[in-house]
Amino acid sequence: MNDLTQTPEMLIATMGARARRAAATIAQASDAQKADALRRAAQALRDQAPAIIAANARDMENAAANGLSAAMLDRLKLDEGRIAGAAAGVEQVATLPSPLGSIIDRQVRPNGLELSRVRVPLGVIGIIYESRPNVTADAAALCLRAGNAVILRGGSEAKESNRAIHAAMLEGIVATGLPADVVQLVPTTDRAAVGALLKAAEFVDLIVPRGGKSLVARVQEEARVPVLAHLDGINHSYVDGAADPAMAEKLVVNAKMRRTGICGSTETVLIDRAYAEGPALVRALIEAGCEVRGDEAVQGMDARVKTAQEADWDTEYLDAIVSIRLVDGLDEAIAHIAAHASHHTDAIITEDGARAERFLNAVDSAIVMWNASTQFADGGEFGLGAEIGISTGRLHARGPVALEGLTTYKWIVRGTGQARP
User: What is the pLDDT, as a whole number, of residue 2?
Assistant: First the structure.
């Protein structure tokens, strides 16, 4: 147990030292043992669902009293379905092929040395996250399966939920003989503990922030540990002039309204002036309960459209609000996305394959889509199991980060007595 009388720096140092020792143990654990630990953890989540829901109810009550937005409350809420989904995600990670030990490439040098690059765990990963308690299960499962130890620091609004999920996960993990320190939860909501974790370069190999812009900005500013950043999800759906109207309406409404509070939600819709069914598309969004903010041309389509301000094109609403702009063709759509997107997920809806390929090649985002809802921007939907987050950067890993993104590699050199001249 951690001593809460310690300073945040002492607490993180203690947890970090334990995590480093646990990382050395789990790196040598068999793939079968890690998979078994996750299957047992998934069953523990199901068995302890009533306790987890009760803990979540306390968090929800406190969050509502503190004025959390509807979008944030949706992220925080747990019910039987969401817990079952979290357990299924943990179980799926147990079935995925492990990247560890896989040979990335191999060569034999002229002097006979055999060189291989082989995937290995990163070591100790720190996850700092807000609101979504399911991250506790997802992050623990992915880090463990990839042979890493993890230190979790959830948001204060989800502290009871996170503790309940963590306790369930540990029950399954330790039942297989793995050390409890392989998955640790920072026991304090003191913000100073976040700062200490960000500076714990002796113990932590990678920091992954999952939360709003202010959290990510703080992590990037203060971290002395490499950061795998997930910035805003300012995602676009571009309706090309050659889009099928029925498909366009279905995809755009789904992309915006299926779950408005997730990072894969479309925030801006671009409509080609050549697309004749623009008014019907705007009407469908409004009738689905979405507030539409548009430019002058879009306002002319429906009297209920509000005036879009310049800031709207750079806003991640995470709510039932969308900004819509008319554009003159594919090039203007691509230019708008380049100027305003967060390089997360952007989609084109069109029946013209050539224009679709231009869009897919020209848009510089972690995920680009053709004739699909941006709500598919999810590791589970990509067949990766649960995800640690969606990286919008360009180094190490990009897009949904799952098992492979939580590994690095080392060079293995096999010789027959070669000495360098």
Answer: 57
DSSP category for residue 235? E
> How much of the chain, in percent, has pLDDT values that exceed 70?
99
User: What's the rounded Cα separation, in Å, for the pair 344 and 374?
Assistant: 10
pLDDT digits (tens, 9 = 90+) for 221-236: 999 999 987 778 999 9
Q: How is residue 399 annotated by DSSP?
A: E
Give the burial class of 302: count Cβ atoms within 10 A of its Cβ; 0-12 exposed, 13-18 middle, 19 or more buried.
Answer: middle
pTM of this structure: 0.83
Structure-token pair, residue 179 = 């050390």
Closest CA to 143 of 185, 93, 187: 93
Amino acid at 337: I
